[in-house]
Design goal:
CATH architecture: 3-Layer(aba) Sandwich
Number of strands: 10
Structural class: alpha/beta
Distance between the termini: 45 Å
Number of domains: 1
Radius of gyration: 19 Å
CATH topology: Rossmann fold
Number of helices: 10
Oligomer: single chain
C-alpha cells in the first residue's frame, strides 16, 4: 500500500493538538507507541496491516508531532476522545510498553470499546518489580536531564530499553538504533519544553485484569528488562485465555527489531479474532432459527 492511500490529520483533543494517521478498510486496529518512541515505530506494520484492516496510529501528547500541553491529562482519556472524533466505536488495540498499559486502562474503563488487546513489553499499572540495573542508569540520567544534556539521556535510555540488560552495546541494527534515537530525542525535547501532569487512572489495572473478558496477547522480547517480561507474564496469566509469547533475540522494541517475527505472531492472532466473531454470529443465527 502506498503512502498516498493513507490520511494524516491533526485534531484538538482535550486541549492538545494530536496528530494521527489512518489507512485501509475493515475492522479497526489502533497502534499505540512506546514511551521512548512515537507513531513512526509502527512503520514496519502500518502499510502491511492496512491491506487487511482499517489502521490508526497517532502521537500521544508529548510525543512526535503532538506537543505537550501544561496541566492534567489522561492518555486513555485522550484516546477515547480521539476515537470519538474519528467515529470509531470499538477496535483492537496493539500497544507497546506504555501504549500497552494505556490499552489495558481503556479496556477496563470502557470495555465496550475494546475487542482485543496486544501488549508488547508492557506492564499493567500498579505492577512493579525492582530492577537495580535500571535504577543505576536513572541515577545518571536524571542529573543529565537536569543540566540539559539530552543527548546523554538519550544514550542512557537507549541502553536501558533498546539494548536491554542482557545484550552488549552495539548489538542492535544501526538503522533501528538511529530511528529509535531520533524518536526518543524528540520525546526528551518536548518533555524539557513543557511538563504535563499525567493523571493516574482510578482503576489500578494490575488489580483488575481478571475482569477482562476479551482476547489478550502479551508479547515480549526475551532480552527485555525483568519488569517488562514479568509484567507481560502477569497480563497473560490474569486474563482468561490470555496468551504469553516471547520473541528471542530482541529487547523492548521487537516490532522494529524483528518485524517479521512479530507479525507472524500478531497477524494470526488478529485473524483468529475474525474467525471467533464469525463463529459467534453463526451461533446467534442458529439460536434465532431454533
Amino acid at each position: 500500500m502506498s503512502q498516498e492511500s493513507s490520511t494524516t490529520g491533526t485534531s484538538t483533543i482535550n486541549g492538545a493538538l494530536i496528530t494521527y494517521e489512518m489507512a485501509g478498510a475493515g475492522r479497526t486496529v489502533v497502534f499505540l507507541h512506546a514511551g521512548i518512541c512515537d507513531r513512526r515505530m509502527w512503520d514496519p506494520q502500518f502499510d502491511r496491516y492496512a491491506e487487511r484492516f482499517r489502521v490508526i496510529r497517532y502521537d500521544m501528547r508529548g510525543f512526535g508531532d503532538s506537543p505537550m500541553v501544561a496541566g492534567p491529562f489522561s492518555h486513555a482519556g485522550d484516546l477515547v476522545a480521539l476515537l470519538d472524533r474519528l467515529d470509531v466505536d470499538r477496535a483492537i488495540f496493539i500497544g507497546a510498553s506504555m501504549g500497552g498499559a494505556v490499552a489495558l486502562d481503556l479496556a477496563l474503563a470502557h470495555p465496550g470499546r475494546v475487542d482485543a488487546v496486544v501488549t508488547v513489553g508492557s506492564s499493567p499499572r500498579g505492577f512493579d518489580i525492582p530492577d537495580p540495573a535500571l535504577a543505576e542508569l536513572w541515577k545518571e540520567a536524571e542529573p543529565a536531564f537536569a543540566r540539559g544534556d539530552l543527548d546523554r539521556v538519550n544514550e542512557i535510555e537507549m541502553q536501558a530499553w533498546l539494548d536491554g540488560p542482557h545484550r552488549p552495546l552495539g548489538g542492535v541494527d544501526p538503522t533501528v538504533r538511529a530511528k529509535a534515537e531520533m524518536m526518543n530525542l524528540r520525546v526528551l525535547q518536548l518533555e524539557s519544553d513543557v511538563e504535563g501532569d499525567a493523571q493516574r487512572p482510578s482503576i489500578v489495572a494490575n488489580d483488575h485484569l481478571h475482569e477482562l473478558t476479551i482476547p489478550v496477547l502479551a508479547v515480549v522480547g526475551n532480552l527485555d528488562r525483568i519488569g517488562a517480561v514479568e509484567g507481560s507474564r502477569r497480563i497473560a496469566a490474569s486474563v482468561a485465555g490470555g496468551r504469553f509469547v516471547e520473541i528471542p533475540g530482541t529487547a523492548h522494541l521487537p516490532s522494529m527489531e524483528q518485524p517479521r517475527a512479530f507479525d507472524d505472531l500478531v497477524l494470526p492472532f488478529l485473524t483468529s479474532l475474525d474467525q471467533r466473531r464469525m463463529g459467534n454470529r453463526h451461533s446467534e443465527r442458529r439460536s434465532c432459527l431454533l
